Amino acid sequence: MSNREHWQQVFSHKQAQQMSWSQTNTDTAYLAFERLNLNKSAYIVEAGCGISDWSKHALQNGYQNLTLIDISKQALQCLEINHRQSGLFSHTCKYQELDLSAPESHWQSTALNTVDCWIDRAVFHFMTEAGQRKNYINKVATSLKKQGYWVLATFAENGPQQCSNLPVQRYSHQQLIEYLDASELGPFQCVEHWQQDHITPWGGQQSFNWWIIQRR
């Protein structure tokens, strides 16, 4: 089964509350994004949006220049329906089906140096092969404006080894910074980092590392 087929199946059979990342309070990725205090006209990409609440919080707070990316068409359709039903639909919010681990795409060529902030809560850690990571980082590096921000979360070094029945690549703070320095696809600079213990809907604990990274 391909990654696309896997995620299509996940989002076809599960509600948000059945997924480990689901939260009952304000989305952690949105709270991290708020620290940046960006202008409401900022162009923001949410990578691997799934059916998370990040875009709902962003739209409610006046951010409308959004591109929501996911490999699953089903997830994007569910998210758009949710926005329409909540009265949050905006013609400037785009729903983009895209495999971020694949080589260059048409979308990437249209987004060169235009993105003010790239949000990724736990997509990058699914890139377990060197080629996948290189393709993903290339998209981030070429899309972000200079001084643009990348808000990133992955499972920490003591976090789970799998998510949604797929293997993940865990990162300590030092491991991620060393990887980015060696990739030569930036340059990137870490502005802030912290660790979070996320409680799943069924009471489990998952350790995440978070970074706010700036493209120089």
UniProtKB/TrEMBL annotation:
User: What keywords sit in the KW lines?
Assistant: Methyltransferase, Transferase
Q: Which InterPro entries does this chain map to? A: Methyltransf_12, SAM-dependent_MTases_sf
Does this entry carry the keyword Lipoprotein? no
Q: Which GO terms describe its biological process?
A: methylation
Start and end of every Methyltransferase type domain?
45-149
Q: Which domain of life is it from?
A: Bacteria
GO molecular function per UniProt: methyltransferase activity
**Entry-linked Gene3D superfamilies:** Vaccinia Virus protein VP39
Q: Does the keyword Transferase apply?
A: yes
Which Pfam family, an example, fits this chain? Methyltransf_12
Q: What is this protein called?
A: Class I SAM-dependent methyltransferase
Query: What is this organism's lineage?
Result: Bacteria, Pseudomonadati, Pseudomonadota, Gammaproteobacteria, Alteromonadales
